[in-house]
Amino acid sequence: MKPEKKSIINSLNNVVKKYFILISILSALLALALGNVLVLDKTLTSNLVVFCAILTIYPSMIQLKMEGLLKSVKQLRQIALSIFYVFIVSPALAFLIAPHLGNPTIGVGYVMANVVPASSASLGYVLIAGGSIELATILAVLTLFIGIPVVPFLIRLYSGSVSIPVPIEPIITSLIEVLLLPLIVGQLTRYLIIKSKGLPYVEKTIKPHLSLATMLALAALIFVLMLNQARGVAKNPAIAILIIFYQSIVIAALLLVSLLIDKFFKISYEDHQALSLISMTKNQSVAAAMAVSTLGPQSALAPALLPMLQSIIAIAYLSLEGWIKRFLG
Length: 329
Known about the structure:
The chain is an all-alpha fold and 329 residues long. It has a single domain, classed as Up-down Bundle (Na+/H+ antiporter like fold). Helix content is 83%, strand content 0%. The relative contact order is 0.19.
C-alpha cells in the first residue's frame, strides 16, 4: 500500500471518529426529513437494515483472532458479568421506565428494545474502542443464544396478564444473518489476506480501513432505521423525546454500574469495553422485527430511535478512553 493512500485513510478515519456523533445526528435528521415525503417499500427497508447490520460486523470479523476467541471462553468472570448486565440490570431498568411512557403498546416495544441481546454493531464499537474483540464476540454469541428462551420470558413477565406471542424466528434469523454469516466470511477473508499479505497487514495496515468502514456502516444503519419510522416520529414527537430522555438515563445507569463493578473486580480496560459496549448496545433490528410482528408498527418506535442514541452515547463514552483507563488502573 502506498504511504500517501495509507495516510489519507488514517486521516479520514480519525476525522470520522472525532465527529461521529455529529454524523449520526445529521444522518437521523436527514432520514426524518426524507421519510415524511417518500413512500417506502417495507421489504426493501427491512433488507437494507439487515444489509447495513452485516456491514457493521464484517470488518470486526476480519480482525478477530480465533485463537484468542478460544481463550476468551475461559473468562468466566467476564461472561458472568455480561449475563448479569444484559439480562438482569438492563431489563430491570426498562421495566421501571416503560410504564411512564403512557402508551402500553409503545411501552412493551420499549421493553423489547432493552431485553434483546447485543447488536452486531456492538463489535464495531469494541473495535473502534480498542477493546477485546475476542471477548466481545464470545459475549455476543452467548447472549444471543441465551436470549432465545430468556427474551420471551422477560416480555411475558412485563406484559403480565396480556398474552403476547413473541416470535423466535427473528432472533434466529438475526443470529445467522448478522453474526454467524459475517463471522464465517470475515474469517475466510482474514485467512486469504494473511496467506497473501501476512499477519501484520491484517492487524496493523488495514485496521484504519476496517474502523472507517464500521463507522460508515453504523451511520447508514441509523439512517435506514430512522427513515422507516419518520412518519411515526412526526405524528408524536413528544413520545419520541420521552423515549430518548428515559433511555439516556438507562444507558448512563448501565454504564455506571458496569464501570464500578468492573473496577471492583479489577477488569482490564480492553475487557471492560467489551463488557460495557455489548451490554448497552442492543440489537434493535431484532427488537423492531419482534415488535412489528407482535403488536404492529407503532410499537417499533423505540427500536427505531435507540440505534441513534446508542451510537451517540457509545461514541461519547469512547471519548472518555483516557479517564476510563486511569479509573480502571
